Amino acid sequence: MKLTDLPAATAADNAPLCPVDHECGSLSTITIDCLKEYFTSVGHSPSPSMWEALSDQAKAMEAMANGTARPTLYLSSLDPGVGKTQTLYAFVRNLVRSPAHAGVGVLICLGRLEEVRSFVQGMSAFGSLPPTAVAVMTGDKELNALGHPVPQEAQVLVTTHQRMERMRGRRLSEAVAFFYQGRPRTVRVWDESFLPARAVVLNTNTIASLLETLSTINPDLRARIMATVNEVEGLPDNSTYSVPDFAAEFSIGLPKVIRAMGRRAPTRLKDAAADLWHLSGRTVSVRCGNRDGWALVDYRDSLPSDMAPMLILDASGRVRATYDDMEARGLLVRLQSAVKRYDNLTVHLWDKGGGKSSFALHGDELCKEVARMVLTKPQEPWLVIVHKPHPTGGDYERLIRQNLQGADVDVAFLTWGNHMATNAYVDRSNVILAGTLFYGTAQYEALKRSVADQRASDACVSAEALARVKIGETMHRLLQALCRASVRRCEGDSCPPTNAYVIGNSRHDFKGALAEAFPGAKVKAWRPEGLKLTGYVAKAIVYLSEMAPVQAGAKVRFKQVAQEIGMKPDSFNKDVRVHPIFREALSELMIIEVGGNSRATSFQFGQP
Length: 608
What we know:
6-stranded parallel sheet, 38% helix, P-loop_NTPase
């Protein structure tokens, strides 16, 4: 049966871009054929290896639809903008229109409520689905009204990660609310970041905020928890602690604590109580950071144990260390991927602290420089990603706009935390990351333990393992943030010309993270206005920059440069060669240091 032969109510209006014959090919083949026609119509041109990876994604979903998929997690980690989501749209469209798959249900899990509406609307690129085909299950009645009022009767169910996490301790195969035609949905897709368990980091200050409520339940329980806080704050960093079993000791369950808080209690306090009762009776890790104080570190199951088989669509899958641990445990299989090149991306890096605390202290200075950079190209559109307003640091978007002094510039803003899963700015070729987000050591350890299934009683987490998690999370944020702009788009296996400006301290190895996250990208120094090169450093840079264009492949000894600028060789080696700005300038000029077996003696010029 051809799709055009279906009843008018399902096929005549808003027909799919690619009406194909389901009797002439597999679901994955049909999906890719539709996708190729659609991408041609919008000027999107993935490389051959990217097409192979998209086909692999379609085959994984087809295996789930046909009941032949292995019970594992499948990870598609193609970079943002390649076409993972469009492949999902096309597959769902054709699955619904396949008579052979009429009884196959689809479950799609998204990260945020705002993504639900855009996802449902986005599927219309391949033609509208029948009104009864899609249901939405969230806590938002307006969003739920976008789909069928009875989710169990809709072939495609769109829900949120949070909705799935509420099912901890239950099996998906027993959750009738998620069924389709009386059976579990067999095609399951998780969009964006996936963790098999939830990292738990419970700060002692947060525990102390529960004491007022606990005193109304049982004063002895309050005293016991206060004593626990005092004990933990007397422990050294990276130690272990056996949390008392409060529930058993006082015969008080979590529901009673939540009821005592009342309906108006902040969600963060209810979550803290749930975490504390989860930690009760467990041996946990204790981390002490200068900024965050003491924290108890562990993890807890947050998803049904039978989610697999399931497809995870996460572009950060190739850079985050968390997926490596899941793969090592046998939980996850990586689908075919394809390297996207970023040779047309130039990143200007300002070696300056850009975390929340840095902006709280130096927000005026940082926002002024961001505005100055925007005004260097006032005729071009910009995207700026900023921290959310800070109680003492101020509203950073407002500060930047004030420093623009009413100039007629096209600048859009996103805040960290809301910088993912939007394609609204893909035509902007200038993007500024006004700082970045960082976790404390406790959070990185909790992430590592959650994906490795490693309790504090099992072993300590090494410094090397923490460093891998930290750099992976840094690359994840850089990749997701910069790919809100035009760098997201594909031109073959590369991206369009894009300029990015990043504020980040060198102690976090931003240069290395950028190089790995964006293969082929050029990283240059972003030097704020007012940072004037002076003295011997400036003289050395001028001398070498004048030689570089005409001396490709040539060498010049350190001693000669020192003599030319009027320095002694020893002073040149100690004061100029190690200067961070001088090192940045060498990189920009494509100059490397070369020499004998034991030490470098000369500069060598690269290609002009």
